[in-house]
Fold:
Amino acid sequence: MSELARNRRTGSVHVAAELPFSPELDDGGWECPGCGIEMIPVAASGDRLYKVAPHFRIHGQHAEHCSTLGPGPGGSSSPSASEDAGDAPPGTFPRKLRLAADRQEVVPEREPAAASAAHVGSPKAATAPQPHGSASVAGTLHRIAESYLLAPEHHGEPLEIDGCEGSSYETCFRRLKNTNRPSRLPRLVWFAEIQFRHILREGDVAELTLSPLQWIRNRSVVRPGPHYRIRFDMVPWTPRRRNAMFAELERRRVEQQELHHAEAEERVNIFFFGRQDGEDAMLFHVEDPRLVCFFLLPKV
Ligand SMILES: [Zn+2]
Structure:
């Protein structure tokens, strides 16, 4: 079971978790980035609810020289690219986040991708068609967050995310802590443990609550009433993206519950690039599923 594969059409490397949200990757087939053997995506189509997380299954065996052999990848939720992200396969250490033109996902369902690239309605839409396969450009937050976790020695490297106030890995990422004085926060990639009891769902809107555990322990500080929440308004999304997101939220909630009951040392953390609500400072809106990912981190 593998998380990384290279798309044969575009030449770019992707994690399986990106696939349900990136239908433009459906064509072309997949191969091992190390040796080129065929890989087959599993539970990645996003068209129904899967029990397992998206992953790649190898069709045959890796070649002897395959660079993905050796120190093996970690668990399904842990960062799993090679340890030396500096020398990692092309694409595992992105410099820029650019969402592929996704207007065909939002407006008329069958609008061709090429035409939709010209749309600039969304602040995060691509401003011009870009060649696929550029090793330094990530199509989702996933690989960027993974690089952040795997390569602390590279945190000074530049990172460009449209709308983000940071300009390097160091300055783009910050852990979100609950507060007793809700305030305006800089627009950054925030991350925090999720709570396993609370995923509200009303129609196509889902709301995830973040864990307040760091406050329960600290008795000298007043625990704030409301926790931070992240709202996904999926109404404009395709059914595929909605299904994939609901499935992912539920899987992660259950995973967090199991970790909690097992008294494990790790917890599920969400990484997200969203927009703080104009009135409720404890609420964030995430408008695109590609701006969210989950990783296990040591318990806070
Ligand atoms: Zn291989």
